[in-house]
Specification:
By secondary structure, the chain is mainly α. The chain has a domain of 86 residues. The chain is built from three helices and two strands; from the N terminus they run H-E-E-H-H. It has a two-stranded antiparallel sheet. Helix 2 packs antiparallel against helix 3. The radius of gyration is 25 Å and the shape is elongated.
Length: 148
């Protein structure tokens, strides 16, 4: 073992407990904030519920339910696209690290990185555009908050 390797090993051994304490003190509590951004539990909004006592439909479907359905579908698609992009990025990283200087495999990994980044960008830009359109369709009165 060279002197540089021994020094790096010693530095990592000193730094690892500090990083673990930092992770457990600050990293794990942040996971509790992830519960606020979960996908909707019901994809299709509940409307046109049959009331057996009055023999009528309660809560008839309207424009608000259509907008809510579109928003739920959009959110669901983004919640599917982001983990798939993360898996594709991980696969490209694995290909890149296991290339061992093979230019064909390195260019394949670069292509996957580029295609996934472009695809994720398109998904997020489309989500932003459709989300703004849905907000404009669902909002009564002035859509611009400054004008209210």
């Amino acid at each position: 073992m060279t002197r540089l390797n021994r020094e790096l090993n010693t530095g990592v051994r000193k730094l690892l407990p500090i990083l673990l304490v930092f992770f457990f003190l600050f990293g794990i509590p942040l996971l509790s904030l992830a519960a606020d951004s979960v996908a909707p539990t019901r994809l299709v909004p509940e409307c046109n519920v049959w009331n057996s006592t009055t023999h009528k439909l309660d809560n008839p479907c309207g424009w608000a339910h259509v907008v809510q359905l579109a928003n739920n579908l959009l959110t669901f698609m983004v919640f599917i696209a982001v983990p798939l992009a993360a898996i594709a990025f991980a696969w490209a990283g694995f290909l890149y690290l296991s290339a061992r200087g093979n230019p064909g495999q390195i260019s394949k990994a670069h292509g996957i990185f580029l295609n996934v980044a472009i695809g994720l960008g398109i998904v997020l830009i489309a989500w932003l555009a459709v989300d703004q359109i849905l907000k404009a369709l669902a909002t009564t009165g002035s859509y611009i908050p400054v004008l209210q």
